[in-house]
Amino acid sequence: MKKSLLTCVFAITATLMLAQNDVTKFMGIPVDGYKPEMIKKLQAKGFAYDSKLDYFRGEFNGHKVILRIVTNNNKVWRIVLVDASMSSETDIKIRFNSLCRQFEKTGRYMHGAYEGNYIIPEDEDISYEMNVNKKRYEAAYMQISESNFEEYTTISEQEKERFFKALRQKWVWFMINKSNYREYYISMCYDNMNNEADGEDL
Questions:
Q1: Which sign, positive or negative, has the C-alpha torsion 38, 140, 103, 88?
Q2: Label partner for 166 (CA 20 to 30 A): which of 141, 192, 193, 201?
């Protein structure tokens, strides 16, 4: 009895410690630490930093993007990427659906907040849906590492609840945004929810 209890406690502790140390990564860079360090790491990846406007320009997943670092209490909690150029309604649907398929085939993500398929049907009028029905076209995934997956395969059903609670700190999500000229773009966020504001400054 003592032995099984100790084994259970050890497994839970190991899972929680793993979750604390294993944060969301953007291009292999942990979304954590302080902004000056993150600036250097992003520059090393080829992103050009404009210190006056406080953003980067570069290429990500085959597209030109503008990138910003978001902090809370000086700690990095979000990397935001926005398409540098606009797309037509048809092109943005193709791009959104392509991103969904890419995320789901990598094996590095688990389906996020919603059940079902994020794919937009070819005949859907997204302009109408966004303007009239206020529909948001977004997809959310939880990032998992190889160590996460190995841990997941060895823990019990009771421990999986704690595992998923920790995993939900590692969101990667994207959505379609519309400009004033019936043009569209994708914005994408890599979030380390451990560093998100939680009312501590109120």
A1: negative
A2: 201
pTM summary value: 0.83
Hey, what are 3's tokens? Answer: 């032995």
55-60 and 48-50 beta bridge pairing: antiparallel
Whether the CA torsion 33, 47, 102, 126 is positive or negative: it is positive
Burial of 48 (0-12, 13-18, 19+ CB in 10 A): exposed
**pLDDT > 80? residue 106:** yes
Over the stretch 190-202, which tens digit does the pLDDT of each residue have?
999 999 998 878 8
Nearest to 43 by CA among 57, 24, 64: 57
Q: Which of 42, 34, 110 is nearest to 72 (CA)?
A: 34
Distance between CA 154 and CA 151 in Å, rounded? 5
**pLDDT score of 136:** 96
Neighbouring residues of 179: CB distance < 8 A, sequence distance ≥ 6: 86, 185
pLDDT, mean of residues 99-116: 83
